[in-house]
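Structure tokens please, single chain.
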Amino acid sequence: MDAEEFRKHGKEMIDFIADHVEGIRQQPIVPNVKPGFLITKLPGRAPSEPESIEKITNDVEQLIIPGMTNWQHPNFHAYFPAGNSYPSILGELMESALGCIGFSWAAAPSCTELEIVVMDWLGKAIGLPEDFLHCSGKGGGVLQGSASESVLVSMLAARHRAFKTHRLSSSTRLVAYCSMLAHSCVEKAASLCNVRLRQLEPDADFGLSGETLRQAIEKDIHDNLIPFFVCATLGTTSICSFDNLPSISDALSSLKGMSETPLNIWLHVDSAYAGNAFICPEFQHLLLDGIEEVDSLEFNANKWLLTNFDCGCMWVRDRLHLEDCLSVDPLYLKHDHQHLTADFRNWGIPLSRRFRSLKLWFVIRRFGLTGLQKHIREQVRLAKKFTKLLQKDTRFEQIGKTRMGLVSFKLKGENELSERLLGVINNSGQLFMVPAKVKHNYVIRFCVCSTSTTNSDIERAWNVISYHADHVLADEIIEMTLCPGELSPADLATNSFLFPCKDNSRGDEHESVPDLIRSRSTVGQPFRRPFRRYSTSELSHRLLSRSLSSAACLQSLTPTGNAPHKTTQLRLDTILNALKKERPF
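Here you go.
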């Protein structure tokens, strides 16, 4: 391909990308495919002869796009955002064109120095103390592949420091700590570092407290173990809860003189998602209150700062700890200026490094900090709008608080109800969400992810959730004790049923669900309420009206009278059709 052909196809590709992005609403959120769908459509061997760009692009449209989960769709509410924007795409395009491998200053001077500048920009924007900035000459920021990589790098550096401090030859006595709600990458990092990991119980606010941490550390010291690393999470994956960083810092400070060899526990802050919001002054206290003992921290700009993957931002208070642990310096990598500037190959695991800072530079300059703050605040506002809708419906309960763009909730009752609800919603193709487990609760995570999500999308999403909740509750098996003396085979054949009402004189006035539950008899005692007969249409209207939408919770209602009574299992399948007419969206 020569330059002219590249110009032609490059312009066509830009048009293709813009059309795809702008038409994302018309795409399905999740593809209707099964494993192997693409493998069977592509040749088993690479083509021996060149193929045209037109043919390749056509295959992208016909084969690749139909198999994509569309993370940028306004009704995609799973995981966390996959940041993207036109400036980021342009920066990525420029990075590919420059084609450098930035493992050292000598290998790519602009790549190294732009990363230094951009990381200091962001560090100042989130209010970091000067120790964490390159301009201090002590610490600094570096772009890693992901938050998972940052956690591993931090733990490796902490382990290396502990080996030197305690003169260890083995890691068997080293212990790391985190909350039970910390990301799974902490567990993976501990496994790779071959150290013990204590996953501690969070408090009532779903955060790790300093007191819980202090007790665990004191016990391990008593057992002749060596605490060396703590990962505090600001914005957990499950419910976006925050560990109590001030109390954790206080606990670590108070423990420093406990043993003969001074404890020097590395405190890392994992804020992969929520950390992006610290560019907004109103959220900075979540990080800065307690930062005194923090050694390193990170967040993924590719989650919430409109920058595409990968772009993990990590800062360290003392860069010598990273370089001491990770430096390997063969002759072919040395250069004359290596003591005058950072060589980021010594700040992470891989040698080869992408020019990640270029796309982040494009994004920060094109949007400005005010534009990025506006984006964060808008998605937080939308999440709080969803929360208000959720809290008005007594069938649901929220787990945790809405602090950022994530709302976690469940149907009241057994976990199975929420699990079924999520399955029905995802299978409908109207929304896409994922679950989490929090203190034995199966919760549904609703995250505002797309830049194109609007107020009407939030309202529609709630209507979808509410509608399918009606279906799930209606489809529950309701055990109702019916009076055999008043129930004939004809009744069963015509689907007419007995149901409690307030009194005989006004038999058409139905009790509310809370009243019914409160007045339900104890086991073996009759239900002291008059009954009347309802047709299927009447029952469906009453049972699934807004005031009675949780009627599926009723069980074992016993009618008056001394006649023997039996339990009939009633599946309300016929009601679902009525619901479809009542809940259009």
